[in-house]
Write a structure and sequence with these properties.
The protein is mainly alpha-helical. The chain is built from 7 helices and no strands.
Length: 181
């Protein structure tokens, strides 16, 4: 049985680790030329937010997703709020989906997570393309979807596995022991 002070300290350290991981992912996602293949780059903040939502529950995951979305909006130089709202809703939905239907087990959880994260990346990028390229009527919008959105979603899949493992490790390291056997 852990003391209240030790549990509180552990939770603070855990969220500091998540915040530092979020900053690292933001740097990796926005560094020009790093992991870039043509116009496409892998997403780092979206899989991180989804992994935290899977392990920390719907409320904490949604808040962390909104923070990652705000950071992504700000670093991309966009109108702040759209990605924050999208990530908040996605993280909440993914957390509920995993808790109700996809119980996290060591055998296939990383593959399930990669599938969910790639679908979420495709959804977020398609919404971004729809609102910022297709609806304003830019020429070549279909090519942009084909040569940017799809490769970015595909390039984000390999990123999911290490992020899922790191978030799992942080979650297990700072798990609260309630003394129940």
């Amino acid at each position: 049985m852990e003391s209240r002070r030790k549990r509180s300290r552990g939770q603070i350290v855990k969220w500091i680790c998540y915040a530092l991981l979020g900053l690292l992912c933001a740097v990796l996602q926005t560094t020009p030329g790093l992991f870039q293949f043509g116009a496409a780059k892998p997403l780092w903040l979206l899989p991180l937010a989804l992994a935290v939502a899977v392990f920390e529950g719907e409320f904490a995951g949604a808040v962390f997703g909104a923070v990652c979305g705000l950071m992504w909006d700000w670093l991309a130089g966009r109108t702040v709020g759209m990605l924050a709202l999208e990530l908040l809703l996605l993280c909440f939905a993914v957390s509920v989906l995993v808790q109700l239907y996809l119980q996290v087990n060591p055998g296939n959880s990383a593959a399930n997570f990669a599938l969910i994260a790639s679908a979420a990346a495709l959804l977020v990028l398609t919404l971004d393309w729809l609102f910022f390229y297709y609806m304003p009527g830019y020429s070549g919008a279909a090519g942009r979807w084909l040569w940017f959105v799809l490769p970015t979603a595909v390039l984000s899949v390999p990123v999911c596995f290490p992020l899922f493992g790191v978030v799992r490790r942080i979650h297990e390291e700072f798990k609260i022991d309630n003394g129940v056997v």
